[in-house]
């Protein structure tokens, strides 16, 4: 009965001289029109004839359901607000002598003036439980309408029943589940290409009009198809962090301090803390047994702040050459020993010096007899 009333009203409203123009088939199919479109009388300036929504927009306007702006535009891509959504559905119901059932006591919203042109429209929807006040008592008339709110308004306003128990994955269990089911099972919505509905998303003026038009012109023969389960995108396997290349003869010394502490491979059986404690004790024994006269430590990070701020050495290599000379070995041999203790985790010991590497702070610990 409702559809007949709407179409009768619509037919009377658009009984004006018309012109017919061809439009591309893919546009016509998008709007449910085949092959040709009836040119509207005084069309909106910003709704082109090749728009898939051209016919529907002007049908709804000529029926008195939608209105444009004073400049002759419809602004189809503007996000629809709660107050405009209320106005559109109220007009559609009044045109067909239909009313919403009052299910709640109306409490005056703090942010809705009684002289607002949308006051009665919003009041009707609030009393029908289709628009809710927030915790501060505001109805937020200018706030964008969500797709979930749209589903509830249209399903209730046009008495849509659930014809098939199909539900979008992102709607299941929500307070809007039955309303979205009603829209989908009646062909009012198809959802997104990823098989979601996006309850909290907003919608444009043209899409709200399209949903209303479909709800008022339900195809009795429409049969909804099951909603496929979204195929999750495969999660790419994490790739190991590439090892920074190094120009220094000491392995890993061109790495950042954080990488040196966390990414250098540990020896078999390594236990953080215990390993370093054991090596420190071994170095102390070597110091006592061999009478080493000095103990020192240094970062293997080539660009360590303590090193770059030093005025004594001209860089890491200069420091290594000085240390090698102090313990009486060549620079090449000294670097080779450093790399060995980093790789093996062992304590190196000779007659003149000993050293080990601390994996937790990235430092070489050394003792020895100065060769001077």
TL;DR?
By secondary structure, the chain is an alpha+beta fold. The chain is built from 13 helices and six strands. A four-stranded antiparallel sheet has the order 3-6-5-4, sandwiched between helices.
Indicate the topology:
Layout (H helix, E strand, L loop, with lengths): L1 H12 L5 E4 L2 H6 L5 E4 L14 H9 L19 H14 L23 H9 L19 H11 L19 H9 L19 H12 L40 H7 L10 H17 L3 E6 L5 H4 L7 H12 L3 H14 L3 E2 L3 E6 L4 E6 L4
Antiparallel strand pairs: 1-2, 3-6, 4-5, 5-6
Helix pairs in contact: 4-5, 6-7, 12-13
Tags for this model:
alpha+beta; 372 residues; rod-shaped; four-stranded antiparallel beta sheet; two-stranded antiparallel ribbon
Structural class: alpha+beta
Strand order of the largest sheet: 3-6-5-4
Strand content: 5-15%
Radius of gyration: 39 Å
Q: Helices and strands, in N-to-C order? A: HEHEHHHHHHHHEHHHEEE
Strand element count: 6
How far the N terminus sits from the C terminus, by CA atoms, comes to 109 Å
The mean pLDDT is 85
Percent helix, as a range, is 25-40%
**Contiguous uncertain segments of 5+ residues:** 4-34
Characterize the main sheet: 4 strands, antiparallel
Gross geometry: rod-shaped
> In DSSP terms, counting alpha (H) and pi (I) runs of 4 or more, how many helices?
13
